Amino acid sequence: MRQVFQWVVGRRLSPPQLIILSYLLAMAAGALLLSMPWAHARGHRLTLVDALFTATSALAVTGLTTVSTGGDFSFWGQLVLLGLIQIGGLGIMTFSVFLILLVGGRVRISQRLLIRDALNAPDLRKIVRLIQRIFLFTFTIELFGTVLLYLSWQGQLGWQDAAWPALFHAISAFCNAGFSIWDDSLLRYQTHLPTLLVVMGLIILGGIGFRVLEELFEFLRRWLGSLGRPSQGLPLSLHTKLVLVTSGVLIVLGAALLLLLELPSQASAPWPARLSVALFQAVTARTAGLNTMAISRLREGSILVLMMLMFIGASPMSTGGGIKTVTFSLFVLSVVATVRGRTDITAFERRIERSAVLKANLVLVMSLVIISLGTMLLSASEHFSLRELAFEVVSATNTVGLSLGITSLLSDTGKLLVSLLMLIGRVGPLTVVLALGRRLEQGSPVRYPTEGVIIG
Questions:
Q1: Residue 303 in contact with residue 271, Cβ under 8 Å?
Q2: What is the pTM (predicted TM-score) of this model?
Q3: What would the DSSP string read from start to end of 204-235?
Q4: How far apart are alpha carbons 357 and 344 in whole angstroms?
Q5: Closest of 286, 159, 73 to residue 65, by C-alpha
Q6: Which residues contact 181 (CB under 8 A, 6 or more apart)?
Q7: Does 441 map to a domain?
Q8: Tally of domains in the chain
Q9: Which structural domain, as residue segments, surrounds residue 395?
Q10: What is the pLDDT of residues 143-196, one digit of tens each?
Q11: In angstroms, rounded to a whole number, what is the distance separating the alpha carbons of residues 432 and 427?
Q12: Does 231 map to a domain?
């Protein structure tokens, strides 16, 4: 792995090109492994397109599937799938550098630059420490999640049979992958509060981002070390505040809207069950993809709410996708500032750099363009309704994994297109644009005169 990594770095490709190339190579390797006979359940075989689709979905931590994860794959096939999910959740470049550190190698400056671009990390000097923290947080949280799910399920499944489902779903939930070894996902645990709380906790921890996890960890460590005096705690950064506030608002508002819109269809269900289902779906729609309700039976308004949550997605430096919570919050803040006639965009008594706002708006617009083009192209090869196709494209582009039931019915052309959308969603639209062209100029010596235009 180290020799391959160094060979690729030496090809003088740009960091965005290297990131995309690493995913393409991993997709090919994953598809090859999943197409092996030992990866299939007895009496089942996968086509090459289905193997490529599944490998891409796992590496992109999406969760869309054209086959049954529990029915068509053997234990070894599921193990390969879980490995792809773990690598995809952490990031291929991050995983490669971790292997270099594991065998005692040194991380070169070129490799640090790759990790910085892949993770959007601000400080090049702390890359190695960041990777060590990422793996520590990941494996610790996944271990606790596995134990808690095992304790919740061993009474029903048995102490032996509960171990593998607990491990698989803990990793899938933390990586925001959406894969389940059960065809009904978590529908059987729709009202099982321990399961819902553990899975929601894993999804949220994986979705808020490793930088936020590190800040919260340091905050709690210093707070506990000062005998509970909050004044001695570490001040949270603007990034962490934006992530926590935006995530909380999206979860509460999303759950409230789903609860309100689905009232007529759940009139016979008790209120605790309605609340738990709505809350879980609001959490999982933001790139996780595990579900406790039949998505295809939801009302049109609820489908629209889910699409909006999927579009926004998780947070930067997380295992999830979407345009990210910080991108959405900066867009909202820029709109508010414009309406109020303010030139500065502020939040929590801090002024936000205009370059960050422009980048956020660019990501939002590019994502909308990709979703629009993807929907148009998919409608040319498939016969499903625009509602079903648009939902599928939004789910794939934002690496969510929810579907209205058409994924397995797509043609080979449709499956390849959705695979491409999942890849774009995982690496990010900006990475794709930078990989296709030259690095953007940092500035120009020529300044042209300004002239006004009419807007609106």
A1: no
A2: 0.89
A3: HHHHS-HHHHHHHHHHHHHHHHTTT-GGGSPP
A4: 11
A5: 73
A6: 69, 70, 78, 164, 165, 168, 169
A7: no
A8: 1
A9: 2-329+348-436
A10: 999 999 999 999 888 888 999 999 999 999 999 998 999 998 898 898 899 999
A11: 7
A12: yes
